[in-house]
Amino acid sequence: MAKRRGKPPRIPQLGNHGMDDALHAYATDLSSAEPDGLAALRRATWTQTVKPQMLCDELQGRLLACMSHMMAPSRVLELGTFTGYATACWAEGLAADGVIDTVDVNDELHAIQDQHWDALNLAHRIRRHTGKAMDVLQSGVLFETDARPLDVVFVDADKEHQQAYVDWAIEHVRDGGWIVVDNVLWWGEVLRVQDGTSRDPYAVRIHELNAHMKGHPELDNVLLPLRDGLHVARRKPRA
Ligand SMILES: C[S@@+](CC[C@H](N)C(=O)[O-])C[C@H]1O[C@@H](n2cnc3c(N)ncnc32)[C@H](O)[C@@H]1O
């Protein structure tokens, strides 16, 4: 396997939920390479932010881009922008008239986002909202200038309110639209919640969210054990 000298780690924190690091690296190497512009954004994230491990890894980024190409969405909503890496991945497959709205409470990363979205020629496809995700969702701003329904909601902000975000998404995503939630394995801690050996509050909430999505009558779902877990659900058509 090729050495990656001078590059940031592509799979931080892996190894404690059963997916072998070497297999993950193999899958990454045998998938399309991360585009240069995104590699530059990854480097900037690792050199300029204090929690770079929040960044989605190369393989997950390629999966999000692939899903975007499959769905060809006109509207994507992302909760949790961080440095805008996943935003750019989702933007790759947008329909010709497609736009992504992205929300983050942190306004300190705008300069990194602007620099790299400009370099990737994506800035005109992205609408940025600054504030707490629930406030932005409840403000109505997402539909003020664009009444089109949402095709995809990507939930990747704070873990406290994930279920509320998913419930909002079930109400607002179009019939047959998609809800994608990141970090749903919480580095394996959900297994220990399930067998009663952990009461980690984040893991408890995430396990409850996974069960909520699995049991929800309006969703078809698949929980992918990729990196820290990606829950993908299709909103069934309304009666
Ligand atoms: C895991 S990071 C997002 C990673 C990004 N989607 C990616 O894959 O590159 C989580 C982000 O959620 C933001 N966040 C935390 N609490 C929030 C809240 N209540 N509302 C909106 N954003 C929040 C943080 O500032 C952080 O940038």
Strand numbers in spatial order across the main sheet? 3-2-1-4-5-7-6
| The CATH C-level class name | Alpha Beta
The total strand number stands at 7
Shape: globular
Number of helices: 10
**Cα-based radius of gyration, to the nearest Å:** 17 Å
Spell out the CATH superfamily. Answer: Vaccinia Virus protein VP39
The fold-level CATH name is: Rossmann fold
Percent range of helical residues: 40-55%
Average residue-wise pLDDT: 92
The H/E string reads HHHEHEHEHHEHEHHEE
Which band does the percent of strand residues land in? 15-25%
* Major beta sheet summary: 7 strands, mixed
Query: Which second-level CATH architecture applies?
Result: 3-Layer(aba) Sandwich
Helix/strand/pairing category: alpha/beta
Could you describe the 3D structure shown?
- The protein is of the alpha/beta class.
- Helix content is 40%, strand content 18%.
- The protein has one domain: 3-Layer(aba) Sandwich (Rossmann fold), CATH 3.40.50.
- S-adenosylmethionine binds next to helix 4 and strand 2.
